Amino acid sequence: MIKAMAFLFMTVLAASPARADIELSPLRQVLTNKNRIATFNLSNPSTRILDGRVTWVDLSATETGYTPADAQTRAVLSAAPYLTLAPAQFRLEPGARIEVTVRLKDGIRPPPGERRSHLLIETAAARTLIRKASSGLQADIAVGVSVPVLLRGRGRGSAVLSETKLLRDSEGMLLISAAIEPTGAYSTFGRLTAMFLPAAPGAKPEVLGVRDNVASYPDTPRRLIEIPLGFFSLGQGELTLRYDGGGEYAGRVFDERSFTITPPK
């Protein structure tokens, strides 16, 4: 039997938990001078005892996700020096849950603009049997899950949609691709929705696809998003892509773009 050590680091980008061994919610928190405390719920849905720690990690945004921030970027990006968190370590029995609390330090006001660090939950390794063909691999796997914590001064984010394209996936199904470009010094957060209005008289708009928990950050010029539409072709009509705000931006529309679709003859 071959023994190996593996570490799996996952940044949460979707509403579902990253894996069944640990669950962390919500997916982000925003602290301001008025809202100085935020809490996260950490639970253990597995059948084993989880030992872990809570720390910070600084990640730079990229077009499609995150990458570890370098020292120069951390100096202007990191929110961690302004924050405290508790507990720093934990033990969770199967089915148990705890709260992780993040606070703005006493006497500290948020600096101008916006800073961001990622709350990182790391659990100790657990031996897991991975079967492959007729042989097996016994591995010790540690799990990490991270979510962004934003520290924001006065200001609100804004963004525009650009580079919208109608493409096909590997199976020939339509998908819509777009870039979200932040237009200021603050991040945005919300939902991207693709809708289609058929050209037939009296037709109503149809929702073809949705991407939740879509963020743009000022440390990258754009975020690329794809939404599968689930069709091989669309009839004549109007395709609309809309970026609606969520969380603290609920009720706001950041941008909307519409395109006339004419089937090939």
Features:
single chain; mainly beta; Immunoglobulin-like; 2 domains; disordered N terminus
Architecture overview:
By secondary structure, this protein is mostly beta strands. It folds into 2 domains: 2-152, Immunoglobulin-like, CATH 2.60.40; 159-261, Immunoglobulin-like (Sandwich), CATH 2.60.40.10. Helices cover 3% and strands 58% of the residues. The chain contains 1 helix and 20 strands. Strands 1, 3, 5, 9, 11, 12 and 13 form a 7-stranded mixed β-sheet that branches. The longest helix has 7 residues, at 71-77. The chain is globular, with a radius of gyration of 22 Å. Residues 1-19 have low confidence and may be disordered.
Strand and helix map with partners:
Layout: E1 2-11, E2 23-25, E3 29-31, E4 37-43, E5 50-57, E6 59-61, E7 66-68, H1 71-77, E8 83-86, E9 89-92, E10 97-104, E11 114-123, E12 126-132, E13 135-152, E14 159-168, E15 174-182, E16 188-198, E17 206-216, E18 223-228, E19 237-245, E20 253-261
Parallel strand pairs: 1-13, 3-13
Antiparallel strand pairs: 2-4, 4-10, 5-9, 5-11, 6-7, 8-10, 11-13, 12-13, 14-15, 15-18, 16-17, 16-19, 19-20
